[in-house]
Amino acid sequence: MDDAQNQNLSPANLPPAGSGSADAATAPRSPGTPAHAPAPVQAPAPAPVAAPAAAPAAPAGTGVVPENIGGKTAISEQAVAKVAAIAARTVEGVYALGTGSGRALGAVRDAVGGSSATQGVHVEVGETEVAVDVTLVAVYGIPLTRIADAVRAAVYSAVESLVGLRVVEVNVDVNDVQIPGAPEGRPDKTVRTGSSPA
After folding, report:
1. Hey, which residues does 92 pair with through a beta bridge?
2. Are 171 and 132 in contact (CB under 8 A)?
């Protein structure tokens, strides 16, 4: 080979990697490069880099990540009490929520179109935590401590998962026991005297 051909084969005269066609037979050659000279070799493409974990989806059409939106969320005691009441009512052995007199007032309220959805439940809501008090009537035949523990667990789980507040305590007050088949409330007391009606 003469010096002119050697000069054309030097790395400085080769096309940059990745600038030509993928097919080596049709790769462009510098002017003066002999046809029998090896085609330039392309460097392998760099491995793809894994994308970072995606942020939570933004509300449709906004393109804004929820963590970047300013503002305050206030959750009312009424809302928390409803979640706690619904959870407590799902527990086996809970006959009703509230006390006897509270249930009587609840029946009147229901009759006139009111709502007793939170009857028997009292909550104290802070900015990040909540305390719940539940008063209930249990069904006879199921251990009362088991009912109370199940109510506590159900309320704790529902409030933490649905409301998003940390539950500091769930106090359960078993106010009464309902005997299956017995009428609700106090039975009528009849006074018997020694004489029979004529």
Report:
1. none
2. yes
